Amino acid sequence: MTVAVETGLWQLDAGASTVALAHRTMWGLVTVKGVFTAVDGGGEVAADGTATGALTLKAASLDTKNAKRDAHLRGADFFDADNHPDITFVVRSAALGADGTAEVTGQLTVRGISRPQSLTARVSGADADALTLDTEFAVDRGEFGLGWNQLGMIRGTAAVTAALRFIRKPA
To answer: Which residue in 69, 106, 120, 134 could disulfide with 91, CB within 3.0 to 4.6 Å?
Structure first.
């Protein structure tokens, strides 16, 4: 698949984008899934085809369909959303390959702690005015101060999946 992406500024279409996470808990017996309902972002594609940008998730917008759990996840044991309302991923570089994938490197910040993050995104749709990227990658929550683990119930990494639709910003 050969994809050409127009140069210029691009804005995330939040209504057509999803960012979700899944984490095994209860000693690996249950997978907790949630979706961030407040996402924003954008980027710029340079003349050489590389891209930079940023994605922001409101930590308090995580919805796991369980109000008590969501309140706990927003609290100090996990995201500490009152003190760290945003989760950000700043794209330092992204280069589109001939196979329809993009190699992305950037900086993920959760709870005020930043770590480098690399991932591969797949272009699942593209035209002159819109681009959709799909990705899945793992995050070690312990690296971001999300170490709460009562009775050893929560181990390992969280899986983050995203389907991000970007539209060209009007000039």
So the answer is: 106
Which tokens sit at 41?
């972002």
Q: Delimit the domains of the chain by residue range.
A: 8-166
What is the C-alpha separation between 40 and 129, in angstroms, rounded?
A: 18
The CATH number of the structural domain formed by 8-166 is: 2.40.128.110
Question: How far is it, in rounded angstroms, from Cα 68 to Cα 161?
Answer: 23
Q: How far apart are alpha carbons 160 and 66 in whole angstroms?
A: 19
Global confidence as pTM: 0.86
Task: Quickly tell me which residue has 């972002």 as its tokens.
Answer: 41
- For the beta carbon of residue 119, count every other beta carbon within 10 angstroms: 20
- Distance, CA of 138 to chain centre: 10
3 state DSSP class of 171: coil
Rounded distance, CA 17 to CA 33, Å?
17
Beta bridge partners of 95: 50, 103
Backbone angles phi, psi at 111, to 5 degrees: 55, 30
Beta bridge partner(s), residue 124 = none
